[in-house]
Hints:
The protein has 179 residues and is mainly beta. It has 2 helices and 16 strands. Strands 3-2-6-4-5 form a 5-stranded antiparallel sheet, with no helix packed on it. The longest helix has 9 residues, at 120-128.
Amino acid sequence: VDTVSNMVAHAEAIAGINGSFFFENLSPMGLLISEGVQSNGLRNVDWGVFFIGKNGRADLIHTRDWNDEKEADFAIQTGPRLVVNGKPLTFRDSMARRSAICVLDSNDVVLLATDNAVLMRDLAVFLSRPESMGGMGCRNALNLDGGSSTHFVVPGRKPTFGVSGFDRVPVAIGVFRKR
């Protein structure tokens, strides 16, 4: 359990964002696979699974569509899903800082975090809206843990770029250069 900034520095990642929700004992909620090794099992909840297959392609699917035959190099289960097939989902709303992962296509993924509180429905609409209309054009998007756990770090950028979190988190998603 640490800040995403420290995790990114330790792993020598080029960027990082907070990951899944977690229980009071700091164990993660939901599936976690890193470097092809599963460290946490799938939860039977109405969430999504973002994964990168052994072929390097990214996808985001509903939890019910996950199976162990996916052969993922990386996977994280969290939720709710914000955008499905280009359409924003609807939510009972509350204001909070948010972080999300957006799949534009199997080769392009966007990580984002808000420094201020926003409604989840507004985030979903923004993510689904085409770029030509001021949005992100996400085909699919997934909510990550947010609120005080919202962290987004891109070290070495001038000016400094990112969103500082208030809490330490047990899971972060690191971005690394292709090998």
